[in-house]
Design brief:
- Two copies of one chain form a homodimer.
- By secondary structure, the first copy, chain A, is α/β, with parallel strands linked by helices.
- Chain A folds into two domains: 34-304, Queuine tRNA-ribosyltransferase-like (TIM Barrel); 311-402, no CATH class.
- Helices cover 47% and strands 17% of the residues of chain A.
- The first copy, chain A, is built from 18 helices and 16 strands.
- Chain A has helices at 2-8, 12-29, 77-82, 92-97, 101-107, 110-114, 126-131, 158-168, 186-208, 230-243, 259-272, 287-295, 305-311, 343-347, 350-358, 362-388, 392-402, 410-426, and strands spanning 34-40, 47-53, 56-60, 62-65, 88-90, 120-122, 134-139, 142-146, 153-156, 172-174, 219-224, 247-250, 279-281, 300-303, 314-317, 320-323.
- Chain A has an eight-stranded parallel β-sheet. A three-stranded antiparallel β-sheet of chain A has the order 1-2-3.
- The first copy, chain A, starts with a helix and ends with a helix.
Chain lengths: 427, 427
């Protein structure tokens, strides 16, 4: 009756405006990113699902290419779509520094700026502030840092990160967190987790107190932290699921801990997470890690590996990684992978790609990138297909029977990196 | 009767083989690259024509993108075709050094190696030997030089250049010549021309004594030299047309001489050349040079400018060259050229391209290259259209009324370059 009373006092065009605002409010009020669990493996924890966003549907498990500076390096949007990319990442820290939020507002958000009409997930900037930026200092909820580009001084907080991601207009927003390094002692991990949880709650409170800046809704994912300590990880799951988010990411893994530790923690966390929300393992990874993670219940993964390695000449096949710069490909007039239907494999030979690599030609980096992104996405698509057809365990076995897993030097590198960082910070 | 006698003695499959060989011989014997003159301007020397090759037709006037290392830098074959590229260049000197002739033979020639099914023109390697290679020494018809990549010792001659181009399998082969520098005194130019003419005849004798290596015919173009001296240029035209070639190129221009001198010499040479053969002005040039050259009777042009400048952020429009790195484009959400239908202009804004340039992103170089190649080819296509529609003088006038011609620093640079070269050679 109240509504009718109001409507009675208004002109027709005012009616329309009011009705529009009211409908929009309802959409926001009842908005909940829709995740449909389609299938679970009988013997492994793997699952297939569907995520619905305002920019379209995402079929999980899914590999998400990384578009740090509003471009997935070396690829066009058309090439990403041909590779069946369903969602890409943008980096909050990088995009905040360049092109900056003034340009992003002028453009109408990241989708418009880069002309990408499918879903986008943005990270919170936390990981980059703690790994890339210089002279960072945490005081309360404010992290002060210097840009790695020009040394200029900036401050991030949960609210700032949310405001940047509101401006970017990503379909999936990540909470602001501290990503613990490896190795990390228990005390540090515990204290860091408390801070992260406070920041995650603040992220949610801020984002949900505002309307989206552009004409589509934004889901918010929490990040489970706790370093390599299972009790902290489970405590984190408890806190975050009690709080309630649209999805749950696992952060602070794939930072150099032994592979088995990463797989086991992924399994524990996934087992504790609710089944009706998507799970995202951040920064993973190599093809073997992707399959291991899917088998443990992960739905979404991202990594710079396929594009970064492509520019170094490393390309992936179902038999393992090969390096196109090797002399053996000089006179090899077969495609990279005869079973692959990417543009590079359908049109060019290993000999040509070897030549382009040696000449440092842009087309060489492009062809390698096209192939690798195609391969990583195909990997998750095939896993999904196997799940839907009730044959995931066989797919898993076949993959590891064939794929030549590389030796892992991650831990040694991480320890070296962490020692150097500590030494640097003492100065 | 002789043929019948032979055929009577053979089995059926032998008949077929013989018939095939005989037909092929006839094709080679009577082979003459077909050039059809379609239209001439009434008031200017411009003309429209058609060149028929075994890899398809070329509509002239035409701009030919340069694919030095078996790739037009930053572009895929599909992108070249979308830009309506009808013929591309390959560089004999570069391809001889890398990937080398063993790989090229294994691939089945340059078309196969790079999977380009349209016409290819290869230069003779002469220009690069004299401009890029180190420690070159001419003894008789043998030019000895050191590779600019690894210092290894190599020898070129008219015969070697022809053999390399046979292996590359280009549709249009260029004779081996010496490209005189600018400035160049009369005596040097006269002596060089004598050597060049001897080499051109040797090139023809060698190439025509052999069957093509692959299953298509190769046309041979002569190169008119004579530096900036009109009498030498006309002497060169006389010698070469008496000798008879499939087409005639003008070499040794666009090397730093004043622009008016280049235009005047182009006019004199074109006026003296036969009308029924295509004319190719080598290494030209800027958009204004292209239009000036077409107006003087040139049919084909090539230049690295559109791709090289693209990588430096310079992009071309009908109003002139702009540099996308300029701050003024930071918040400019319009396309580079609203009237252009290339992928970059149809999909992205100046602000996005400015951002990609600042970030040194490969996609930035790609979009700029796509646009520039599209623009240069469109330039010649529009000129051709105007010719066919009997309105070339109006097109010419409209172009220069609108296009902001840059100041020319070519001569000063060339004099500086030549002085440095002479100083280096004295050491």
């Amino acid at each position: 009756m109240f509504m009718v009373d109001i409507l009675m006092c208004l002109h027709t065009d005012q009616h329309f405006k009011l009705l529009f605002t009211f409908t929009l409010s309802l959409v926001y009020l009842y908005y909940d990113m829709k995740f449909t669990l389609q299938k679970e493996s009988n013997t492994l924890s793997a699952r297939a699902g569907l995520i619905q966003t305002d920019h379209g549907q995402i079929e999980t498990p899914i590999f998400m290419p990384v578009g740090t500076h509003a471009t997935v390096k070396a690829l066009s949007n058309d090439e990403l779509k041909t590779a069946k990319a369903q969602i890409i990442l943008g980096n909050t820290y990088h995009l905040y520094l360049r092109p900056g939020m003034e340009v992003m507002k002028g453009a109408g958000g990241l989708h418009q700026f880069m002309n990408w009409d499918k879903p986008i997930l943005t990270d919170s900037g936390g990981f980059q502030v703690f790994s890339l930026a210089h002279l960072r200092k945490i005081e309360g909820d404010i992290t002060t840092f210097r840009s790695h580009i020009d040394g200029s001084l900036h401050q991030f907080s949960p609210e700032v990160s949310m405001e940047i991601q509101r401006t970017l207009g990503s379909d999936i927003v990540m909470v602001f967190d501290e990503c613990t390094p490896y190795p990390c002692d228990y005390e540090y991990a515990k204290n860091s987790l408390a801070v992260t949880h406070r920041w995650e709650k603040k992220s949610k409170d801020y984002l949900r107190s505002k309307d989206p800046m552009w004409d589509h809704t934004q889901a918010l994912f929490a990040i489970v932290q706790g370093s390599v300590y299972e009790d902290l990880r489970l405590e984190s799951v408890k806190f975050l699921t009690d709080e309630g988010f649209d999805g749950y990411a696992i952060g602070g893994l794939a930072v150099g801990e032994p592979k088995q530790m990463m797989y086991d923690l992924t399994q524990s966390v996934c087992d504790a997470l609710p089944k009706d929300k998507p799970r995202y393992l951040m920064g993973v990874g190599k093809p073997e890690d992707i399959i291991h993670s899917i088998a443990r219940g992960v739905d979404m993964m991202d990594c710079v590996l396929p594009t970064r390695n492509a520019r170094n000449g490393s390309v992936y096949t179902w038999d393992g990684k090969i390096n196109i710069k090797n002399q053996q490909y000089r006179n090899d007039f077969t495609p990279l992978d005869p079973t692959c239907d990417c543009y590079a494999c359908k049109n060019h030979t290993r000999a040509y790609m070897h030549h382009l690599y040696r000449q440092n030609e842009i087309l060489g980096m492009r062809l390698n990138s096209i192939h690798n992104i195609h391969f990583f996405i195909q990997l998750t698509r095939e896993a999904r297909k196997a799940l839907l057809e009730d044959r995931f365990p066989a797919f898993y076995k076949d993959f590891f029977d064939r794929y030549r897993v590389e030796e892992d030097h991650g831990e040694a590198n991480a320890i070296h990196r962490e020692n150097r960082r500590k030494k640097f910070e003492k100065k």
